[in-house]
Write a structure and sequence with these properties.
Shape: globular
Distance between the termini: 36 Å
Strand content: 25-35%
Pfam families: Gp3-like
InterPro entries: Gp3-like
Number of domains: 1
Structural class: alpha+beta
Helix content: 25-40%
Protein name: Hydrolase or metal-binding protein
């Protein structure tokens, strides 16, 4: 196998909560109040919808798509949701610096260097919105391809924070049967004084309506046992996926339009600054310990 190649789950399509429009010659994200499932192909009108988009809308009575049934591929939450602070070159779409709030790996003239990551709010290089949280959630939608995924990209603190919490809680509650739980992505909205009462949309992960946590865990245990009896090794799958992520520090295949699309659910500027301040207190002590 080639070295230096980041191995990520196979992507069949994209999940977004907005679109990219052209204004004054610039491509800018425009938020929406529903999900859209697209293929990985673009035409003059934008991303081509995936057939699953029409199917899910039909199942929902052609109403706005605000819930999507999903399944996690891995038991380890961090394999399903990759999230870090990322600074991208706006000309090439390639990452310049990627960090976790403690340490970062940065492209320099001397190559890739490991440095302290003080979070975007405290980093001279990452201030003024240059560096943002960047999350990618990989979920399975199509039972005909159990290892294929649809990726939801986001630069929103609310989505990343909520998804990370849900994944960790469901993994703990199910005793490491996260990949067998019946789950759904849900689009939620909220308003704050910082957003001038304008709705802020973010993505949550919940159980299907009418399914209790106890029932979901029982279903997951039964599915896990059945998979083990068939010879399926979930632990080995997680191990292989983790090794693929650790191959390199930067995902050089992230195209510029994907980074722009990821900000579709970004908050208004004042809301985003407030979230940065919220996270700063929790991360500052760990940054100091590294330095």
């Amino acid at each position: 196998m080639m070295k230096g190649l980041l191995i990520t789950p196979p992507v069949l399509g994209r999940i977004s909560i907005g679109r990219v429009v052209e204004k004054n010659g610039k491509r800018q994200p425009e938020k929406d109040d529903q999900f859209t499932i697209t293929s990985q192909i673009q035409n003059k009108e934008g991303w081509v919808k995936h057939p699953l988009d029409d199917k899910l809308r039909a199942d929902n009575g052609d109403a706005k798509l605000r819930q999507i049934p999903v399944r996690m591929i891995f038991n380890d939450p961090e394999l399903n949701l990759r999230a870090e602070y990322s600074l991208f070159d706006r000309q090439t779409g390639r990452p310049i610096c990627v960090g976790n709030g403690e340490v970062c790996h940065r492209m320099t003239q001397q190559g890739i260097e490991k440095q302290v990551c003080p979070t975007p709010h405290l980093c001279p290089m990452g201030q003024n919105g240059a560096c943002k949280p960047y999350g990618r959630l990989y979920v399975n939608l199509d039972e005909s391809d159990e290892l294929g995924t649809f990726v939801f990209r986001t630069t929103g603190f609310n989505s990343i924070r909520t998804l990370a919490a849900r994944l960790a809680y469901y993994q703990a509650a199910s005793k490491d049967c996260l990949s067998c739980l019946p789950l759904q992505l849900v689009l939620r909205g909220k308003s704050t004084t910082q957003s001038y009462r304008t709705p802020i949309y973010y993505v949550d992960l919940t159980l299907p309506e009418g399914v209790s946590l106890q029932d979901a865990i029982q279903q997951a245990k039964e599915l896990d046992q059945k998979a083990k009896e068939s010879g399926f090794d979930q632990g080995k799958l997680d191990t292989v996926a983790k090794l693929g992520y650790q191959a390199v520090f930067f995902d050089l295949e992230e195209a510029e339009e994907e980074v722009i699309d990821a900000s579709e659910d970004a908050h208004p500027l004042k809301e985003q600054k407030m979230d940065v301040m919220d996270l700063q207190h929790g991360l500052k002590s760990s940054v100091q310990s590294v330095s």
